[in-house]
Task: inverse folding
């Protein structure tokens, strides 16, 4: 029989074996599963201390620091949304499904040797092509996608082979 856990960071369901016990880290986003904490803010909190959802007392200055970081994330999120909206493409993060922000373009070449495929007699791409890099603003995973010119070259070569 296996148990199910939902990662509080990436909301992914984690299935673990009852004999081995629960996972300590999420296999999808690598965050500590037991390290997820919330801090309660409100009128009822005492001046010097407050409690989080586990009942652990934490100093008020920590709460203010957490509140400040939350504000920073909210402001950054608003800017990131406009950046992603302005992008031509906005892939989803393969880990947490957030939309990714474009970092820039990298030219692949120099030591790159494209594979010549025997079935078409040539490589799918040129020796030099561009790759567009993206970053996830939530989990900071990066991913890359071949640039448009490289995609066009690859498709042209595949279609030309089909016609031949």
Result:
């Amino acid at each position: 029989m296996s148990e199910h856990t939902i990662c509080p960071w990436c909301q992914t369901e984690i299935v673990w074996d009852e004999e081995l016990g629960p996972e300590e880290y999420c296999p999808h986003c690598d965050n500590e599963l037991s390290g997820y904490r919330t801090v309660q803010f409100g009128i009822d909190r005492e001046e010097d201390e407050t409690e989080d959802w586990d009942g652990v007392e934490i100093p008020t200055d920590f709460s203010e620091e957490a509140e400040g970081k939350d504000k920073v994330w909210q402001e950054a999120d608003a800017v990131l949304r406009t950046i992603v909206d302005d992008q031509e493409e906005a892939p989803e993060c393969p880990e947490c499904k957030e939309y990714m922000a474009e970092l820039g373009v990298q030219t692949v070449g120099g030591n790159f040797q494209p594979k010549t495929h025997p079935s078409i007699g040539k490589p799918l791409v040129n020796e030099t092509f561009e790759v567009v890099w993206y970053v996830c603003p939530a989990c900071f995973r990066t991913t890359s996608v071949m640039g448009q010119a490289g995609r066009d070259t690859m498709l042209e070569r595949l279609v030309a082979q089909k016609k031949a």
Remarks:
- Residues 45-49 have pLDDT under 50 and may be disordered.
